[in-house]
Fold these 4 entries.
Entry 1:
Amino acid sequence: MAPKYRATSPRWTLVRQWLCRMGIDELTHSLERHDDWIWLADHSNQIGKAKVLMILGIRQRQLPLPGQTLRHQDVRVLAIRARNSVET
């Protein structure tokens, strides 16, 4: 008879820790040098009092075909910067 295993969800702290590790790994990879990078800047995110600027990039040759949607896996995180929103 096979043993019974009780599957539980991982704790949120473990998920957050792995997401942070993946983010740090993504940000520390060197960027390929090409002249067809397109940048997408988003300054609409806010975490507490901090405003977050995120810059994503995609190579022009990797843009989706007309009529298709740009997906998360299509872009690379190029930079993330946080700044207190009360600063000028």
Entry 2:
Amino acid sequence: MATKGNTELNKGIPQIEDAFVVIVKTEWNAHLIDQLEAGCKRILDEQGVANQTYVVPGAFEIPFAIKAIHSKAGRTPDAFVALGAVIKGDTPHFDYVCNGVTDGIRQLNIVLNVPTIYGILTVNNEEQALERIGGIHGHKGEEAAVTAIKMIALNKSLDGNKRKIGFT
């Protein structure tokens, strides 16, 4: 059973300076993804976080795009937000795409020095997707932006506390 979203997430959003977030979104299900992106950008803009969006064909391509942007960008983003929607159909394709994008984002979080936020809706039908872009389950685009800001703040705090971490 799905929860009603993280009602505590928007509390205590840290103020961060000079932050830059790259959003990577899919062309597939654009009528849904555009709403996810709008919510994400709304929060980032309200918090003064610079952002840029890249578009890829589908969810499976998101990890490649993030890795490429990270390695080739003039300014390394402080975080990435992956936005997509995979809607279950009649074939196992849903499982392959969901597993692939999830594993790819997990790997990015291990190898990159900045966080990649999982904003991929994996749903059984369009109604469930709509419930997650401003419906009864909150707005996952907004939640992804808040998570990015919190993770940037954490990452920056660790940079400033290198001597305090571990046994010195």
Entry 3:
Amino acid sequence: MKKMQWVLVTAAALVFCAGAASAQKLAYINSQKIIATYKEAQDAQERLNKISAGWEEEAKLMQKQFQDLGEQLESQSLLLSDERKQEKQQELQSLYMKIQQYQSEKWGQNGELYKKQEEMMQPIFDKINAAIKKIASEQSYDFVFDSVNGNIVYASPKQIDLTDEVLAELEKGLPAKTTPTPAKTSR
């Protein structure tokens, strides 16, 4: 619903500014292609995958332990006293909670994987943004849109795609800018 509203607002703005827009120079990039093609981004994703795979192995071991304990409890339930059975059930419940907590800590909304991804990808995003800004400035583009995140409803074949130029600029080894530049406001 929000995306539809955004599209309608964008379309209305484009219709309203049709006269002014004809004098502006527009281009677009494909951020998904840049991330998928750029070597530094691929390397960072590979490192993240290795980290996650190690955590997955640990989680599998805990799940196997949980399964074994559950099977043990089931097979011995007739032989165990009620008190001992309850202890085993509590142990099983405790292990289940430990697994849930581990998964949340590693892959949850603000888990370690999210934090590692932010830490590893932010310098790459800074480089990409610097390359886009440099190319747009050098070639006098007024706006550069990202075709992946829904900002473009239609891109004419005449529209200029800067994705390959951004990748070429990144391959040149453009340094990342660590401090964000404030947005300029026009009056």
Entry 4:
Amino acid sequence: MTYCRGSRHVVCRTSDGACVLQLDELPRRKSSDELAQGHDCATSRCQRVVINVSGQRHETQLRTLERFPDTLLGNAAKRRRYWDRRRSEIYLDRHRPTFQAVLYYYQSGGRLRRPIEVPDDVFLEELEFYEISDAAIGDYKVKEGFLLEKVSGQSSNGPPIYCRESLQLKG
């Protein structure tokens, strides 16, 4: 065997040419005391929120929603009108399959993925209801192959602004 010593590990090459990584020490898992130390759920806004979409319940953390404060669920004042005090949940009488993609948007940091069973027009209508940003919707449309036309005379500083769309996909 040939040994190559690193700062924390040893890489060994066996006689048949395979490389084997050997750690000097195993990575240590943090104890629950270490994990709790320095983290305050009250100030970190990690309280759980239940969102009931036409009878289907989803659960996420408040801080996940509040990463997008301009959206319906990310803004406390906007989501308050959908709060059901009796059940302690947000209730929305909306399209359930689309909401899975909306929740993924919040949890993934802004990625939009349309479920295959949801038609484009329904998906886009729901995104408008949840007040997802125009920039995110524009990126989604470009990735999906929507035919878009730029508005003439727009500034070159900001993102493209589109005036018209077509549901026809590029061929």
